[in-house]
């Protein structure tokens, strides 16, 4: 059989993912899951840390969206976000569960899971969740230093956000395109019959997107940590001295 005929119209991107890409994908999955899963007990039990975080954001939202939305966010957002993080973790770990089931199963046909697709969409979900978290850290009264944690919560959100974006870009589906070039893939995606692949237009500009996000987050990070009132003297406070009055109660 002529190999060129079989591979005609099939680009390198249509081949199965390399071992390096698979290993890197699983490393990123473990990073995301290691941040999501330990936080679930705090969210689902409405721990004091959870009350402080979502209560602070809720009060901030109440200032321009009303007390109803602000109170609802403070009371229920922890459960909603925790559920979304749990679903995202399960999506990312599903290929591992299926692989383990096949290893332990002694009868029946092995099941399969599309690791590449699950990791792509799971990474996108993780990035969306942490993008919202970063937004509230930078714009609401929550701030970067939450409960004197030196920014640990904020930085973990940034790590998961970047990991999710990289995981999505590494595992997104790609169409076979003429000449197997980036420009060819982009042109093909513009055609009406491939409109459903509009989400993957970032094939042409991933570096610009990442650079824009880094600049955006870096700008507000600097603003949030800049002393806006340098060289301002604290007003001197009045001091008092004890004066004893000659008084006897009768």
Gyration radius, to the nearest Å? 27 Å
Strand content is: under 5%
Treating each run of at least 4 consecutive H or I residues as one helix, how many helices?
A: 8
Largest sheet: none
The computed structural class is mainly alpha
Mean pLDDT: 77
Distance from N terminus to C terminus (CA atoms, Å) equals 121 Å
Helix proportion range: 55-70%
Sequence of secondary-structure elements: HHHHHHHH
Which spans have pLDDT < 50 for at least 5 consecutive residues? 1-15, 175-179, 192-204
Q: Would you report the number of β strands? A: 0
Word description of this protein:
There is one protein chain. This protein is mostly helical. It is 63% helix and 0% strand. It has helices at 3-6, 19-44, 48-65, 67-104, 115-139, 152-171, 182-189, 206-224. The model is unreliable at 1-15, 175-179 and 192-204 (pLDDT under 50).
Question: What distinguishing features does this structure have?
Answer:
250 residues; mainly alpha; 8 helices; elongated; disordered N terminus
Summarize, please.
This protein has 250 residues and is mostly helical. The protein contains eight helices and no strands.
List the helices and strands and how they pair.
Blueprint: H1 3-6, H2 19-44, H3 48-65, H4 67-104, H5 115-139, H6 152-171, H7 182-189, H8 206-224
């Amino acid at each position: 059989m002529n190999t060129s005929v079989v591979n005609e119209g099939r680009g390198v991107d249509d081949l199965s993912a390399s071992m390096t890409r698979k290993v890197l994908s699983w490393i990123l999955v473990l990073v995301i899951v290691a941040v999501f899963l330990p936080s679930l007990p705090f969210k689902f039990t409405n721990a004091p840390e959870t009350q402080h975080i979502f209560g602070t954001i809720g009060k901030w939202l109440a200032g321009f969206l009303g007390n109803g939305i602000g109170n609802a966010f403070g009371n229920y957002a922890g459960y909603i976000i925790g559920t979304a993080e749990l679903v995202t973790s399960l999506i990312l770990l599903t290929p591992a569960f299926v692989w383990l089931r096949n290893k332990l199963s002694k009868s029946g046909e092995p099941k399969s899971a599309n690791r590449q697709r699950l990791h792509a969409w799971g990474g996108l979900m993780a990035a969306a969740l942490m993008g919202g978290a970063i937004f509230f850290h930078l714009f609401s009264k929550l701030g970067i230093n939450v409960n004197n944690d030196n920014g640990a919560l904020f930085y973990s959100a940034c790590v998961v956000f970047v990991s999710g974006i990289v995981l999505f870009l590494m595992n997104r589906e790609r169409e076979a395109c003429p000449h197997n070039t980036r420009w060819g893939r982009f042109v093909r995606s513009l055609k009406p019959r491939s409109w459903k692949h509009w989400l993957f237009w970032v094939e042409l500009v991933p570096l610009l997107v990442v650079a824009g996000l880094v600049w955006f987050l870096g700008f507000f990070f600097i603003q949030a940590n800049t002393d806006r009132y340098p060289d301002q003297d604290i007003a001197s406070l009045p001091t008092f001295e004890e004066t004893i009055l000659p008084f006897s109660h009768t």
